[in-house]
Design goal:
Two copies of one chain form a homodimer.
Chain A: E1 9-23, E2 26-34, E3 41-42, E4 45-49, H1 54-66, E5 72-79, H2 89-99, H3 108-114, E6 119-126, E7 140-147, H4 158-176, E8 186-187, H5 189-200, H6 206-215, E9 219-224, E10 235-239
Parallel strand pairs in A: 1-6
Antiparallel strand pairs in A: 1-2, 1-4, 2-3, 2-7, 5-6, 8-10, 9-10
Organism (chains A, B): Flagellimonas okinawensis
Pfam family, one (chains A, B): WHD_NrtR
Protein name (chains A, B): NUDIX domain-containing protein
């Protein structure tokens, strides 16, 4: 296997991605099960090439992991505790995992590089979960979507990173109308309301909510959605591009 | 002079500080005149020791530059354009400046390190300008407070960093009641209003403003401020700790 080319990347600086999706009235995050040991979960992430900007790196990593271009993506903060990795049990697990992996790919110097202290730049992404085709990273067994309130304990400070991303998402949802990135192309007003309720974890009365959202004048009303059910068919909407 | 010990620091990662102060009804930023050449201005900044967290590094740098402990400090975003320094005229100016500086302090390897591409973590700080005793960095001629709207062209993307910090300050001023960090220990309501007007660059009618600020219940009213002038003496306030 090809040697890991650490010299191509900026050392001690990584990107971790909180990829938000929305399904079954729940805000979800894409997390990966690491192959180093039992119960090791982590956020998808990667390194920054010396020849790309940090935003380009984040877009590239997200494309590699989701197959999607033009994802809505926002850098929200850097995480730089001095104890990130250094000295932790996890570090030894990674070191022995890498040693047993493939000596042609990871020599001792590369292992030192990968297990050094890293400052992480946190990005969150909003995706239409139905369009994503999650792809595993090198040391991952599988990926899965998990409810933001039901995440397992993750390595490093990844649970704190998700909490900070969720906070940033709440602050930006209203202001920047980014929530529609989580929905399919067309949706009913009830679906928008349920999305907001999932993100903010509180209920919004339908009348006020619909008035507020329509007042923003960013939605285009399409035909009615006939489901064959007895109740009144709701209108479908689409976000004006 | 002592050799610059680059091995103590994380490479390619720096901290730049937007230090906000407030004087003469104007929001000001502390900027430094660099000694490398004519008209070179920059934000105060520094590197991150491998043994300290990024927040500790920012606090240390701010203490070194202002003499103050316990400054209000907020990380607001990372700046990582691929063209930060690399290939710019400025880089050559810095290289030749460092070469002529002191070969015992900066050898060729150290000069390469300092002039490599850096990703910068932006922090903004709010200080009582009267308490600050600005201290020059190694390659600075002098520091000065300049109005946020009257800044000279600065090196790299430092003008954009200030603009982003100003935006973050506006977003946080109300929510987190951080504005009082810019004022002296005691102040009149008029002074608070003028501060808000300077930060948001718009006027607030006094009656509504006073009602809103007092409604937050974070201020303690002290005695009246007698100035000897003919007009009514205003109350002095203090932020409840």
């Amino acid at each position: 296997m090809e040697r890991f080319q650490k010299e191509k990347y900026i050392a001690q600086l990584s990107i971790d991605c909180v990829i938000f999706g929305y399904k079954n009235k729940e805000l979800k995050v894409l997390i990966s099960k690491l192959s180093y040991g039992e119960g090791l979960w982590s956020l998808p992430g990667g390194y920054i090439l010396k020849t790309e900007s940090i935003d380009e790196a984040a877009s590239r990593i997200l494309k590699e992991r989701t197959g999607l271009n033009n994802i809505y993506l926002e850098q929200f903060r850097a995480f730089g505790g001095k104890d990130r990795i250094i000295g932790s049990e996890y570090r030894e697990m990674v070191r022995s995992g890498l040693k047993s992996f493939d000596p042609d790919r990871f020599d001792d110097e590369a292992i030192d590089w990968v297990t050094d202290r890293f400052v992480c730049l946190g990005y969150y992404a909003l995706v239409d979960l139905n369009k994503v085709n999650p792809k595993m990273g090198e040391f991952e067994e599988f990926l899965k979507w998990e409810g933001v309130e039901e995440l397992p304990h993750m390595t490093h400070d990844h649970n704190s990173i998700v909490a900070a991303a969720h906070k940033a998402l709440r602050q930006n949802l209203d202001e920047q109308l980014i929530g529609f990135n989580l929905l399919p192309e067309t949706f009913t007003m009830k679906e928008v309301k349920e999305l907001y309720e999932a993100v903010y974890d509180k209920e919004f009365p339908m009348n006020n909510f619909q008035k507020k959202i329509l007042g923003l004048q960013v939605l285009e009303r399409l035909g009615k959605k006939y489901t064959g059910a007895q109740n009144r068919a709701p209108y479908l909407y689409r976000f004006k591009k």
